[in-house]
Specification:
The structure is a single chain. The chain is an all-alpha fold. Helices cover about 70% and strands about 0% of the residues. The protein has 6 helices and no strands. It has helices at about 10-15, 20-45, 55-80, 85-90, 100-105, 110-135. Helix 2 (about 20-45) crosses helix 5. The protein is elongated, with a radius of gyration of 16 Å.
Length: about 140
């Protein structure tokens, strides 16, 4: 996976120990790291004529959801009054220190989906932890 080089906490217990601002930064890095690979993936599957239109629209929908999620996390970050100056500079995969173009493009579709699912699960877990910290009344 092209994000394997990113240092992420192993397990929920370790993720809970990370300060809120760092966890938010990590979420944004993961989301940003998938922007370009998802775009390439969409272009790749558009050339598969045997795929139903339903599959193509789902792939585009996933890319849009990742972008919306990134935007939402940035808004939450601003509302929580985190310092996001360093986060706004993440305009490309180079900013995250990842080499996306070669490794992500060379993965098979099943490997790509496996990696995306793995990172999606991480983001989901990290967001749950942040939600519990920001809104402790949810009895997390």
């Amino acid at each position: 996976c092209h994000t394997s080089g990113m240092l992420t906490p192993n397990g929920k217990e370790y993720a809970q120990k990370i300060p809120r601002e760092e966890l938010t930064h990590l979420i944004l890095k993961l989301l940003q790291a998938w922007k370009e690979p998802l775009s390439h993936f969409n272009q790749h599957i558009e050339h598969h004529q045997e795929l139903p239109d339903d599959s193509l629209s789902k792939a585009k929908q996933i890319s849009n959801m990742v972008h919306e999620l990134k935007t939402g996390v940035e808004k939450v970050t601003e509302k929580a009054r985190f310092s996001i100056n360093s986060l706004n500079g993440m305009a490309s995969s180079e900013a995250t220190g990842l080499s996306v173009s070669n490794e992500a493009n060379m993965m098979s579709d099943s490997d790509f989906i496996h990696c995306f699912r793995r990172d999606s699960n991480k983001v989901q877990s990290y967001l749950k932890i942040l939600k519990c910290r920001i809104m402790p009344e949810n009895s997390c």
